[in-house]
């Protein structure tokens, strides 16, 4: 296929394997199959639709359980015959009520055991999601008593900036003490770093800047 030809998903061999991953942490949630029609419905509804090989029909994820998946992005492989759905799940992906259908680990001796380890690198997106929800709640006039995030957002940009400056100072102070190698002080650096990152995410949300843009900027600096 030349670069000038219009690229299309290849359904010539039938159903297409579709891997579903959580936008928040990149965790693989499930494997399903897409038909041309189910993919079309997914684009139209922005909710994950698949083709069931067992029931011989199109189905929407969560049509019975309510655990729908809002599709953020669809990615294809180089041969255009496999897909990845990047989603925001409303609930567990697996019928066992686990977050992912992939929870067994096969060890070197062939023994199969449950693997409950969870990736943590997507927590930034989870925090962003919560912060954005608080922002929407405030705009809709909801009272969010006891929510520090809501209080911070309601205070406006100046209050958020003030907190960032405060947290940055505390982080630097902890870092200077942490140079001595004391475990307690190093833990303080971790806590203060988390505080600073949280407040930066709140600032980005207040300015309507998606965290993903910052991540892309960081990627562009990778050498």
Short description:
The chain is of the alpha+beta class.
Which characteristics define this entry?
single chain, 223 residues, alpha+beta, Ubiquitin-like (UB roll), Helix Hairpins, four-stranded mixed β-sheet, two-stranded antiparallel sheet, 8 strands
Mean pLDDT: 89
Give, in spatial order, the strands making up the sheet with the most strands.
2-1-6-5
Low-confidence stretches: none
Question: What's the helical proportion of residues?
Answer: 40-55%
Q: How many helices?
A: 6
| Order of H and E elements | EEHEEEEEEHHHHH
Structural class, by secondary structure, is: alpha+beta
Number of domains: 2
Remind me, CATH topology of the largest domain?
A: Ubiquitin-like (UB roll)
User: In this structure, how is the largest beta sheet organized?
Assistant: 4 strands, mixed
Find the count of extended strands (DSSP E, 2+ residues): 8
Strand content: 15-25%
The CATH superfamily name of the largest domain is Phosphoribosyl-AMP cyclohydrolase
CATH class (first level) name of the largest domain: Alpha Beta
Distance between the termini: 32 Å
Q: Tell the overall outline.
A: globular
**Radius of gyration in whole Å, from Cα?**
22 Å
CATH architecture of the largest domain: Roll
